[in-house]
Recover the amino acids of this structure.
């Protein structure tokens, strides 16, 4: 498994790096670029005209390397196809949004309802698939116990996918930030899935190593299938990490290309897919903390603005600008400093997430 994990990471990064120049050239030639209305702070006006839809190189590297390296597991129905469904389905909505912005010259892209409907179809499809293939139980970090959500599993999972895809989209607001935190977070998901696969392998072969949160079925065939599932998830995490690292070559400050909604929604769907197939949705609060805070800051800003206008007659803002990374920009931090801060925070919380599954 380790060989395939490393191969997926390297192959995905290589594909993203190799396709980058041609894709950027094609995007420029077809006027797939940003407009000043969607960039937020006025300091970002200099980025007007930067190509979008660069997330295609992440998706291409990730999917190709994943399918090639994970095919041996045979976990098509339980892991491979669901991951492809939720990641590519989410990406399709983002791609349509980017295409509308660039080709139809509508700075807002798809309407909010069009996005919600598109993502809802993907979310519900993935939720139902997971419910019937792995049941409705999720794991609680640090507690070494399961929580059976019953039929609530389907709507709650759908809402989680919807929230995280939009959170990833909101966080992609400065050069290199989302690809940086995603690459770090994916290392954590790969370690968690890899340790889970090793635990099952050790159980089947009489070994003593194991992490307590892995619930191994008594049937040997079912246990081997579970090991294959964990192996496939570890490979997918490595592939996504590699794709983000390769893309970062062109997206680091000053960015030559933006991933756009195409990339951010692909990442959001992919990360939630891994978390749910590992039955670890609560770890999203740790590994995906910075993404979650992007959405939370926008929500807090909006309601604080409305509440203070009603109370004081004059609206006030909780942050200088939302999402939160723009607040830090307004406070005088450079983009590179913000990216470094977010990456370090993600690294620390990812380490904590790994610890939570082995204690």
């Amino acid at each position: 498994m380790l060989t395939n994990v490393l191969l997926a990471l390297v192959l995905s990064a290589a594909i993203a790096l190799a396709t980058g120049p041609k894709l950027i050239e094609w995007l420029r030639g077809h006027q797939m670029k940003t407009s000043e209305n969607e960039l937020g702070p006025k300091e970002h006006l200099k980025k007007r005209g930067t190509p979008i839809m660069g997330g295609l190189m992440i998706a291409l590297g990730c999917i190709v390397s994943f399918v090639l390296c994970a095919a041996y597991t045979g976990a098509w129905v339980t892991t491979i196809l669901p991951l492809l469904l939720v990641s590519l389905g989410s990406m399709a909505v983002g791609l349509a949004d980017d295409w509308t912005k660039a080709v139809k010259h509508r700075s807002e892209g798809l309407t909010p309802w069009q996005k919600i409907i598109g993502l809802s179809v993907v979310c519900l499809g993935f939720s139902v698939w997971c419910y019937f293939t792995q049941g409705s139980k999720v794991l609680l970090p640090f507690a070494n116990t399961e929580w059976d959500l019953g039929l609530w599993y389907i709507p709650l999972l759908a809402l989680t996918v919807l929230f995280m895809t939009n959170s990833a989209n909101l966080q992609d607001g400065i050069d290199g930030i989302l690809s940086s935190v995603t690459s770090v977070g994916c290392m954590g998901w790969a370690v968690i899935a890899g340790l889970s696969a090793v635990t099952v392998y050790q159980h089947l072969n009489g070994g003593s190593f194991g992490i307590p949160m892995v619930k191994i079925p008594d049937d040997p065939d079912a246990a081997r299938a579970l090991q294959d599932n964990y192996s496939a998830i570890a490979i997918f995490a490595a592939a996504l990490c590699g794709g983000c690292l390769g893309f970062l070559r062109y997206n680091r400050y000053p960015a030559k290309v933006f991933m756009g909604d195409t990339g951010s929604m692909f990442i959001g769907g992919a990360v939630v897919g891994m978390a749910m197939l590992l039955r670890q949705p609560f770890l999203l609060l740790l590994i995906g903390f910075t993404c979650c805070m992007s959405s939370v800051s926008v929500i807090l800003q909006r309601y604080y603005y409305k509440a203070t206008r009603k109370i004081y007659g004059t609206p006030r803002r909780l942050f200088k600008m939302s999402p939160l990374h723009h607040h830090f920009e307004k406070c005088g931090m450079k983009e590179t400093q913000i990216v470094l801060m977010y990456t370090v925070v993600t690294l620390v919380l990812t380490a904590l997430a790994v610890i939570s599954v082995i204690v």
Notes: The chain has twelve helices and two strands. The chain has a mean pLDDT of 92. The radius of gyration is 20 Å.
